[in-house]
C-alpha cells in the first residue's frame, strides 16, 4: 500500500485548522457559559481547557467516561506533546472529550451528569425558521414524480449538513443558501441501495437538528422503496457540537409529531412503526467517538460495514474519518482514498474543512481560481461512492 499523505495539523498560522482552535473554540466556550448556569468550578474547568488547548501540552491523565481503554492508549501515545503539534482530527476529538469531562457529563455523582452541553443549541434549531422551511418543502413533495422525490430527498440529506452547529459557531451568518455539487455519484449510490437482498443499508448520522430531520426523511424513503432494513448509526453521547444521539432522534420525532403538515406527522408515525417492527434499527458504537479515522475500525463494526448492502456516511467529520484527515492531492480518486473500507460506501458531505479528494482536475482549477476558500464555506458538496 502506498504511503499516506501527512496529517493535517493545527500548527500553521492562517490555516483553517488553526482557526478552529483560536477562533471557533473561544466562541464555543462562551456560548456554553451563556447557555447554562454552570457553577464556578465547571466554568473554570472550561476556561482552563481553552487556555491549555491554545498554549499548553497534553497531560498524561486519561479523560473519564466510556471507551476508557482506547483513550488510555491514545493519551499514552500523545501525552507531553504541545497541542499545536497534534493532528487536527485527533486534537479536535480530544478537545471535545475533555469538554465533556469539564462539564461532568460522565460524572455519575454530579447533577450535570448526562446534561448535553449542546442541547440548547440543538433545541433552537428544531424550533427555528429554517427547519420550518425544510418541512414545508418536504410536505410539498406529495404527488411529485418518484424520481424527482427521490432526488429531492437525497439532496436534502446532503445539504442538511450545512446546518452543522460547529461550523455555525463562528459563522452564524454564513451564506449557505446556494451551493453546487463538486462530485455526484448518486446513480451509483442508488444502484447499490436498490440491489436485491436482505442486507441492511447503514446510514451513519452526523448532526442533530435540521440534518437528522432530513436524514430521517431519506431513511423513510429507503424503507418505503423496499431496499430492506435500514440501520441509523448515532453517537453514543454528545461529541462535536451538534452530533446526533438517540436523544436527538427522539426529540426530532416529537417535533415532527407536532408539525401542522399531515405529511410530516405521517413521516414521524412511519418511522416510529419501523423502529418498533425492527425495520429501522437505531445503533451506536464507541468507535464513533474515538479520535481516530476509520482505518482503525474495531473488528465488530468493520464486520457490520462489510455485511451491509451500502454504508452512507453523512457529513464532514465522517468524511475526514473515512479518507483520513490528511494533505491529499484533491485529484486523488475517492475510491483510492477510501479503498480500504470493508464494504460499499457512499459519502454525503458539504465541504467545511481543507480536505478534498476525487475532484476533477479541470474543475479543481476553476474552483481554486473562482473561490480559493471553496473548501471551507459549506457551499460545495460531494456525493462520492466506492463500490
Automatic annotation (TrEMBL):
Keyword Ligase among UniProt keywords: no
Damage-control phosphatase ARMT1-like metal-binding domain: residues covered: 62-360
Domain of life: Bacteria
Keywords associated with the record: Hydrolase, Manganese, Metal-binding
UniProt keyword Metal-binding, yes or no: yes
InterPro entries documented for this protein: ARMT-1-like_metal-bd_sf (IPR036075), ARMT1 (IPR039763), ARMT1-like_metal-bd (IPR002791)
Catalysed conversion reaction: beta-D-fructose 1-phosphate + H2O = D-fructose + phosphate; beta-D-fructose 6-phosphate = dihydroxyacetone + D-glyceraldehyde 3-phosphate
Xref: Pfam families: ARMT1-like_dom
GO MF assignments: metal ion binding; phosphatase activity
Biological process according to GO: DNA damage response
Cofactor dependence: Mn(2+)
Family statement: Belongs to the damage-control phosphatase family. Sugar phosphate phosphatase III subfamily.
Name of the featured protein: Uncharacterized protein DUF89
Species this protein is from: Glycomyces artemisiae
Amino acid at each position: 500500500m502506498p504511503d499516506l499523505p501527512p496529517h493535517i495539523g493545527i500548527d500553521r498560522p492562517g490555516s483553517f485548522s488553526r482557526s478552529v482552535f483560536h477562533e471557533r473554540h473561544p466562541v464555543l466556550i462562551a456560548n456554553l457559559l451563556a447557555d447554562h448556569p454552570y457553577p464556578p468550578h465547571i466554568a473554570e474547568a472550561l476556561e482552563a481547557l481553552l487556555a491549555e488547548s491554545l498554549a499548553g501540552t497534553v497531560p498524561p491523565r486519561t479523560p473519564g467516561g466510556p471507551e476508557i481503554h482506547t483513550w488510555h492508549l491514545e493519551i499514552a501515545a500523545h501525552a507531553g506533546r504541545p497541542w499545536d503539534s497534534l493532528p487536527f482530527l485527533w486534537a479536535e476529538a480530544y478537545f471535545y472529550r475533555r469538554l465533556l469531562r469539564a462539564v461532568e457529563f460522565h460524572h455519575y455523582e454530579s447533577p450535570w451528569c448526562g446534561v448535553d452541553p449542546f442541547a440548547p443549541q440543538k433545541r433552537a434549531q428544531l424550533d427555528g425558521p429554517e427547519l420550518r422551511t425544510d418541512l414545508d418543502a418536504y410536505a410539498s413533495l406529495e404527488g411529485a414524480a418518484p424520481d424527482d422525490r427521490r432526488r429531492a430527498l437525497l439532496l436534502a440529506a446532503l445539504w442538511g449538513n450545512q446546518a452543522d452547529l460547529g461550523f455555525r459557531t463562528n459563522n452564524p451568518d454564513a451564506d449557505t443558501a446556494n451551493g453546487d455539487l463538486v462530485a455526484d455519484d448518486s446513480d451509483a449510490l442508488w444502484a447499490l441501495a436498490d440491489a436485491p437482498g436482505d442486507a441492511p443499508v447503514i446510514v451513519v448520522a452526523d448532526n442533530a437538528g435540521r440534518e437528522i430531520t432530513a436524514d430521517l426523511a431519506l431513511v423513510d424513503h429507503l424503507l418505503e422503496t423496499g431496499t430492506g432494513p435500514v440501520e441509523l448509526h448515532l453517537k453514543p453521547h454528545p461529541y462535536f457540537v451538534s452530533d446526533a444521539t438517540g436523544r436527538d432522534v427522539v426529540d426530532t420525532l416529537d417535533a415532527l409529531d407536532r408539525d401542522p403538515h399531515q405529511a410530516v406527522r405521517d413521516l414521524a408515525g412511519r418511522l416510529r412503526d419501523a423502529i418498533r417492527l425492527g425495520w429501522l434499527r437505531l445503533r451506536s458504537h464507541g468507535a464513533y467517538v474515538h479520535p481516530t479515522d476509520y482505518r482503525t475500525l474495531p473488528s465488530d463494526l468493520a464486520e457490520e460495514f462489510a455485511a451491509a448492502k451500502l454504508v452512507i456516511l453523512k457529513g464532514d467529520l465522517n468524511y475526514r474519518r473515512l479518507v483520513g484527515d490528511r494533505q491529499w492531492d484533491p485529484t486523488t480518486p475517492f475510491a483510492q482514498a477510501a479503498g480500504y473500507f470493508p464494504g460499499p460506501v457512499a459519502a454525503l458531505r458539504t465541504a467545511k474543512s481543507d480536505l478534498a479528494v476525487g475532484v476533477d482536475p479541470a474543475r479543481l482549477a476553476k474552483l481554486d481560481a473562482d473561490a480559493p476558500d471553496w473548501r471551507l464555506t459549506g457551499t460545495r458538496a460531494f456525493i462520492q461512492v466506492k463500490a
